[in-house]
């Protein structure tokens, strides 16, 4: 693996899932990362992604250096040919090239503004690092994708499924703020590569980018979608059609205990952090059906599998 | 040891002090922490506690991950059943459970608001982590206690005493701001478990929580208390009776060279940082009597002894 | 080496350069730092210096603890005898002494205010740490010098020169903000110790401190200076004469492709970050002549050589 920018950087998904589960089961400190440094660069805050990736790198023997570009006020210029006479102190060309001198892998988090669809889809920050870095780049959640989360989700479903071809439902749920589509985008992508009966349920106006969902069944009837589900992945996202807008914030789509009863005693997933009683009700999160903590635990092994692949250049 | 939340988590104090002093004297890098991760979570800033605990963990071979909850704007919900539709992005239930996936020990610092005695005494942040984490929890100073500091203080007195039963005076001193009672509370507790002639001197209105000081002699006459003292522990705290108030800021209780002369050439202690010429006068801090730097150095060994006990589950 | 405060702490410059280049070529993880801790204390932000020094320390086997004094609001009192009744929570006497308990080497960054020449030249922060710390101190860029950068620059010129005595030009260039003189000061110092034909070119009013530049040729004619140059070091600085002022911000001194043609196909250096098309034009930075990324890469080995010398006390 040369980079991990999108899920398409994974050639054989099941093989990588199996590797992650092996890492989970032995969980021994590795040596492949000895003497190597991971640089983690945050243009937006992070908790789970930072800790799990940091832990994964250290389990492989790597050193980790963290830069909070958002807090350290390190304003970068991305435009070619700019006369840098304002507040931007460094051009991405130097920034990426210099970090490549100190780090063996660079991992970058950069959220969308949710104001300009074309700009967000251009993935300027991530793509610029990929273009100007001389070392591999990992996506720690970008404007339109979160492939480390999606790999974690695929690992979790592979690990917990009891049916060869489980029914997996990705359902929209309400949230007080307008959130990116990166997590549902990457989940929709990864589900198209797993052996699953995959359905997306969301209110009208909330259809995801059709070039990502492709032939996946999309319904506006949550109850119908939940019927017989083996896994329910709950997640809020802002509208793609009315780009970046939060059109609906009432709790009629909150995953409650009553709705869960329609499923095949489904396992409930969420990438966390989760707003209790907005996105998912207490009675669901506190039940045996919730696997959200287990899922968060798998973040480490997803990151470890990706880092090891990149370090081993295979 | 399962947790280190209060001093009562130490069964045999002298044994733990001896272990810390052994660690100090050999100070060899350990292996008991190899492959283990300490997560340090700060709801309030920290310098000494962070550095000494980080150093202690690394001396034991652990990896350390630091999260500044105060700066990273990670607003947690602590209320059961809350509908999370405001600014709090994650419930303590998930936060503690997820951190337990990435860390083998979680250490938490959370100061009091000093506005509502009952609320502070409930120790909501620390107790919630203890309740919802599935790994051991260490108190890095909470609303009402600072047991790592108290253990350091006991180690320092054990190490430096020349008398089997030294006279130890905890004396209040002025400070421009209203400070928590956590350090004097824990010092008063630990002194009741050491073989010492222990006296607390503070102005009227500054008596500590009587359920903590119990039968300890409390006097409002600083000069009388200092007489023949072998150790003088100087510390400001805000009023417990008129909760959280700073009633007195004149310098009549500042520990000066003249006052020190009343003692038995006492060793002067303070947890640091110390306001010079407010809490303690220059001529005392710059004299041979001051052991505050030596005391700060012992923080590492107190933390190391506690971490090792928890890692060894004994 | 006992400290690395100024370039004069280097006794034999060429020997240290050679050591750094050896470290670069083998780049093996060291053991001399095992069990030792580097404390890095930032009163001003840092990216390159932090990462390269952190990496250097870890390559030597050291642990690294970072404190952002600027962000953590750790306001220190530096005045002797101060009554600390305001917002300054700790005196440098305790701060430096306590850090010396937790760290084997302390590295400090503290920029000038550029308002009061005498105050900046007193180097209060750096000198106070040197005075009160009981462990070696490293300068990570102070009010008037940046000796780690200068060592890097000397390493880079030694490594890349094809002529025994190359012509090296330090040329001022425009910048929208008033910057410190620390980098050009240290570069001027180190060049006086290398075998080079060294010239400084700057506009009138921008002469550096004459007690640093001494007998170095200073010209106000950039074109004349660039003629036949083998190395061109481009850097902005604020006026020393009209202390801290930015007198000139037009782009007539920007290093362009046309100006580069006057040189002997010179290698172009800059300490980074660089404002493109203000300080150096795109066509120069994107050409084969630019060695700025290579130069940034050498920061690690300069830091490693200095740290190793200090650790080995030789």
From TrEMBL, chains A, B, C:
Instruction: Report the residue ranges that make up the Aspartate/ornithine carbamoyltransferase Asp/Orn-binding domain in this protein.
Output: 182-308
State the Gene3D superfamilies in the record: Aspartate/ornithine carbamoyltransferase
Q: Which GO terms describe its molecular function?
A: N-acetylornithine carbamoyltransferase activity
InterPro entries named among the record's database cross-references: ArgF'-like, Asp/Orn_carbamoyltranf_P-bd, Asp/Orn_carbamoylTrfase, Asp/Orn_carbamoylTrfase_sf, Asp_carbamoyltransf_Asp/Orn-bd
Role of this protein: Catalyzes the transfer of the carbamoyl group from carbamoyl phosphate to the delta-amino group of N(2)-succinyl-L-ornithine to produce N(2)-succinyl-L-citrulline. Is essential for arginine biosynthesis.
Q: How does the annotation summarize its subunit structure?
A: Homotrimer.
Q: What is the designated name of this protein?
A: N-succinylornithine carbamoyltransferase
Q: Which organism is it from?
A: Autumnicola lenta
Identify the coding gene.
Answer: argF'
């Amino acid at each position: 693996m040369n980079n991990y920018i999108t899920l398409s950087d994974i050639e054989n998904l099941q093989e990588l899932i199996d590797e992650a589960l092996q890492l989970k089961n032995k969980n021994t400190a590795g040596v492949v990362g000895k003497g190597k440094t991971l640089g983690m660069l945050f243009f937006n805050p992070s908790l789970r992604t930072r800790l799990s990736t940091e832990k994964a790198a250290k389990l492989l023997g790597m050193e980790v250096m963290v830069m909070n570009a958002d807090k350290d006020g390190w304003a970068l210029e991305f435009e070619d040919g700019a006369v840098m006479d304002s507040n931007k102190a460094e051009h991405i060309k130097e920034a990426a090239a210099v970090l490549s001198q100190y780090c063996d892998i660079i991992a970058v988090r950069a959220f969308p503004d949710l104001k300009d669809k074309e700009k967000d889809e251009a993935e300027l920050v991530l793509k610029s690092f990929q273009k100007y870095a001389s070392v591999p780049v990992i996506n720690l959640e970008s404007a339109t994708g979160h492939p480390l989360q999606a790999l974690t989700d695929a690992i979790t479903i592979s690990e917990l499924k009891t049916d060869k071809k489980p029914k997996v439902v990705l359902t929209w749920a309400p949230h007080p703020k307008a959130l990116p589509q990166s997590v549902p985008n990457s989940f929709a992508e990864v589900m198209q590569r797993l052996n699953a009966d995959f359905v997306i349920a969301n209110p009208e106006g909330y259809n995801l980018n059709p070039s990502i969902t492709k032939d996946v069944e999309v319904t506006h009837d949550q109850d119908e979608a939940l019927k017989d589900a083996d896994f329910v992945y709950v997640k809020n996202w802002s509208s793609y059609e009315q780009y970046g807008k939060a059109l609906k914030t009432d709790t009629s789509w909150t995953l409650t205990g009553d709705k869960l009863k329609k499923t095949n005693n489904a396992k409930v997933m969420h990438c966390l952090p989760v707003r209790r009683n907005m996105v998912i009700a207490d009675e669901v999160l506190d039940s045996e059906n919730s696997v959200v903590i287990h899922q968060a635990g798998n973040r480490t092994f997803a990151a470890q599998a990706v880092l090891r692949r990149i370090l081993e250049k295979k």
